[in-house]
Amino acid sequence: MKVLSLNRLKDSEQLLEETFPEVEFVFRKNVDEINEQDKRDADVVIGYSGKADQAFFEGMPNLKFVAWYAAGVNSLPLQYFAERNIVLTNVSGIHAKQMSQFVFAYILDDYKQMRVSRQNQDNKVYDSTITGRRVDGDTLLILGTGNIPKQISKLARAFEMKIIGINTTGHEVDGFDETYPLKELDQVLPKADVVVNVLPETEETYHLLEDKQFDAMKETALFINIGRGTIASEETIVKALNEGKIRHAYLDVFEKEPLSEDNPLYQLDNVSITAHITGNGKENFKEASQIFIRNFKHFLSNGDVIEKKVDLSKGY
Amino acid sequence: MKVLSLNRLKDSEQLLEETFPEVEFVFRKNVDEINEQDKRDADVVIGYSGKADQAFFEGMPNLKFVAWYAAGVNSLPLQYFAERNIVLTNVSGIHAKQMSQFVFAYILDDYKQMRVSRQNQDNKVYDSTITGRRVDGDTLLILGTGNIPKQISKLARAFEMKIIGINTTGHEVDGFDETYPLKELDQVLPKADVVVNVLPETEETYHLLEDKQFDAMKETALFINIGRGTIASEETIVKALNEGKIRHAYLDVFEKEPLSEDNPLYQLDNVSITAHITGNGKENFKEASQIFIRNFKHFLSNGDVIEKKVDLSKGY
User: Fold this and answer.
1) Closest Cβ–Cβ partner in A118, A257, A275 for B127
2) Helix (H), strand (E), coil (C) string for chain B
3) Residue B92 pLDDT > 90
4) Which residues from chain B sit within 8 angstroms of residue A124, using beta carbons?
5) Is the pTM of this model over 0.90?
6) Which end of chain B is more exposed for a tag (fewer CB within 10 A), N or C?
């Protein structure tokens, strides 16, 4: 049994080798350093890479299990995996703490006018009339009710926000005051002071937010996107901000990443940009490896996994 | 019975007059607009002002009750109130939500490197390697265990921080994992990743933090001051930051307010300055008036108040 890692995993390498002494591990720095022999031998692939496309996996005749060290799997050849009966897992839970903390970094940056205080400090201006907006009592609408939304709702509860969730069927979820099905989105949007998108990219969510949806939001709304950039076209978002359909946006994901210098978002005042960083964390390799260890133990004895298995037809 | 307000109170004026139809209310814009007749007639003073000193109150022979619309009462002539049996209340609780939210605005601004992202946006730089530090698991030390610290601890609990409190005797307080008496401060400081001062100004807390205390903190510690500027001398804080005794500070209060343009803090990179704004809130007048209403009902029938009474010998 051979496991090929698409990344070097620091301390986790030793942990994996000690946990599975009978397994041979090969750790490569990135996809470019993987040779054909590595691929021919691989029974299992772990790690993540933006460059691992179908052609890459086609060189692996023995591949049975891909433990993807990221939450989003939309760059992977899911149909090819399905045809080959390759088991795919992701690590959707491990970014929940970091990402939910970023959501509140954004909300509080905005509500407490941290940029204004920063500018004042730079200009040696002491303005004691700045009045932060209080979070408690405001309504948070989360598009998605999975691991990350649940963690966001936990923080939002402590901040005494009202919490609404959107999921496919509208089924109730612990921690949410109200949940609605995706098809009722347009009726729910006007209620929200803060709209956070955490949805994965699927056929259902691609360009889900169009002009009409931004029109339905409050003009005072704050829009946060930490899900996928394709939830709305760049044109739609720029238009919504330009025309003041919403007050401000915090965007961590974009239709075309990385952003180019001439991206029109850079010309807007009412947007705050981060560079797809809300899932980054020095704990990630370790926590992803812990999930892999639990799954791989099960896989070695039963040929299947126990957690974070991706439904290849749904894409999450 | 006449009530003199040192501020105009917007919607709350009507509420007060309707709640107490037998009482005469006088609402002035500020202390400068109050005449001698206003003062001679006043049985009760409500509101707040930085200019209300002992001389101001000496013109009020009928004064029996001061409902101070702020948390800190250290600018008031407490001994004079004690000698005259004047009841003093503050509104220590009403700023708790706003101030606790600001504490997390600061922590997350720092932990998630929001300034770096902001600078990158200004420079049209897209750096997807920025890695936020996770809050969960870190230790928060709060100097104080009163209303505001309790509210901070409630948020910190949701963020899964370890929460330590310091109070006079070290008595246990709900929501804190550990509490220690003030005299053990030096032994507790090395444990903290984040130190938040919320203590009021008293003889015991004046210049409580000296070089030795900053030496005891972790070099990686974040220091936040939303209590009173006199917790440490300006010289001590500037020295601690200049010499890297701590990593960064968020300061909302200062020994000499307002900060002058030549204040040495403006020369430092590892400090973030806000202008004594963490207690500002558009809800404050309303919430302070609601406390006053509850107290004044009791005062009219019993000559005493039921909540937020200040111990004039302690100053809080």
Assistant:
1) A275
2) CEEEECCCCCHHHHHHHHHCCCCEEEECCCHHHCCHHHHHHCCEEEECCCCCCHHHHHCCCCCCEEEECCCCCCCCCHHHHHHCCCEEECCCCCCHHHHHHHHHHHHHHHHCCHHHHHHHHHCCCCCCCCCCCCCCCCEEEEECCCHHHHHHHHHHHHCCCEEEEEECCCCCCCCCCEEEEHHHHHHHHHHCCEEEECCCCCCCCCCCCCHHHHHHCCCCCEEEECCCHHHCCHHHHHHHHHCCCCCEEEECCCCCCCCCCCCHHHHCCCEEECCCCCCCCCCHHHHHHHHHHHHHHHHHHHCCCCCCECCCCCCC
3) no
4) 259, 261, 266
5) no
6) N
